Amino acid sequence: MVRDGEDGRPWEGEPIPLSALQHAAFCLRQAALIHLERMWAENLLTAEGRVLHLAADEPGGRRVRGVRRVSALPIASRRLGIAGVADLVEFHSAPAGETAYPVEIKRGAPKSHRADEIQLCAQALCLEEMTGRRVPEGALFYARTRRRLTVPFDTELRQLTETTIARFRQVMDSGKTPVAEYRSDRCRSCSLLDLCRPRAISQSALAWRERMLASMLDGEADS
Predict the structure, then answer these.
(1) Fold (CATH) for 16-176
(2) At a CB cut-off of 8 Å and minimum separation 6, what does 42 contact?
(3) What are the pLDDT tens digits along the chain (223 aa)?
(4) Which of 48, 77, 149, 153 is a Cys-bridge partner for 126, taking CB atoms 3.0 to 4.6 Å apart?
């Protein structure tokens, strides 16, 4: 399998799904459980998201107020080895040609973490490679607020996105799921909570460390 940058050739092999990057940015263990171990469990949040995407997943194109809009557009980056389907891509007219503007549809409201932004930025990187034109920004549309949140694709977000891709690829290449780490701000809303069991695993690991430490201290006391 060829890695981009090692010999100048593009990535060869199975591409990482764009949807996996949102999972990986949210939690590497969640992403591995879904995409490596093929586990899935639906809750109210994921069900709402699936229903919300039914309309967006219908391929089609139309022009609205001079903007060409294409839904369910297949996109990919050979350089990064990622591929997927963009919910909506608007093509805005400019003197030098059209500029792509990706719009990702999400349930709920804006989040405290950057997982949604990373997924959207990955779409932009694909569109830049496909069109040969820079994509400066896009938008996240949240169903709860019914508003778009503009996302500039600055250097920091681009680097964070490529780092997330690299970290998840390492997990997939290793074939090993990261250990569980309970985080109340994220685990509570995760549909895989019962399958992952982060509290039980974290407590077991903590108990094991405590037993090992106690054993070491006892050994030192006896010597």
Answers:
(1) Lambda Exonuclease; Chain A (3.90.320)
(2) 50, 191
(3) 334 444 445 556 789 999 999 989 988 888 888 888 777 554 434 444 444 444 455 556 667 677 999 999 999 999 999 999 999 999 998 888 899 999 999 988 888 889 999 999 999 999 999 999 999 999 999 988 889 999 999 999 999 999 999 999 999 999 888 877 766 566 566 666 566 665 555 444 444 455 556 666 665 555 5
(4) 77
Written as one string, the DSSP assignment of 31-54 is: HHHHHTS------HHHHHHHHHHH
> Hunting for tokens 């297949």 — which residue is that?
74
Q: With contact defined as beta carbons under 8 Å apart, do 49 and 56 qualify?
A: no
The closest of 138, 132, 62 to 97, measured between CA atoms, is: 132
- One-letter amino acid identity for 201? I
**Cβ partners under 8 Å of residue 142, min gap 6:** 106, 107, 108, 109, 110, 149
From-to residues of CATH 3.90.320.10 in the chain: 16-176
